[in-house]
Design goal:
- The longest helix is centred in the C-terminal third of the chain and has 32 residues.
- The protein is built from four helices and no strands.
- It has one domain.
- 83% of the residues lie in helices and 0% in strands.
- By secondary structure, it is mainly α.
- It starts with a helix and ends with a helix.
């Protein structure tokens, strides 16, 4: 059973993971169809890793706070790198400015959700302990 404290952060992070996985799958499909994607990277491997992280996050939410906090913090760090790439990357790597900033917005959401999850995971740990 998932701790009530972790339900909302879990849903928020899972939404980001699903969006990021979908972004990668759509990018791979677009590259296969047109030869170019809407972002500099697209990978089915990354989409699979994101799905595995989602499963691990769910299992961690069922078993306790500290594992959830660590995975949520990892999600925040990974999302931060996505935002960072949008700011410092070559603008011509994206199909349009819209896709550049859409990716940054998706990853900023993931960064905030990951931080929120890490804080709630630590709080759940303290509550249980």
């Amino acid at each position: 059973m998932i701790d009530k404290i972790l339900e909302l952060p879990l849903l928020l992070i899972l939404a980001w993971l699903a969006g990021a996985a979908l972004w990668n799958v759509a990018g791979v499909v677009l590259i296969a169809m047109t030869g170019t994607g809407f972002a500099p990277t697209a990978s089915l491997l990354v989409a699979g890793i994101l799905a595995a992280v989602a499963l691990l996050l769910y299992l961690a939410a069922r078993s306790g706070g500290i594992g959830f906090a660590v995975l949520a913090a990892l999600c925040a760090v990974l999302a931060f790198f996505g935002v960072y790439q949008a700011y410092v990357g070559d603008p011509s790597s994206w199909a349009t400015p819209f896709w550049r900033w859409a990716g940054a917005a998706l990853n900023f959401y993931g960064f905030v959700a990951g931080l929120f999850g890490a804080m709630k995971g630590i709080g759940a740990r303290r509550k249980a302990g």
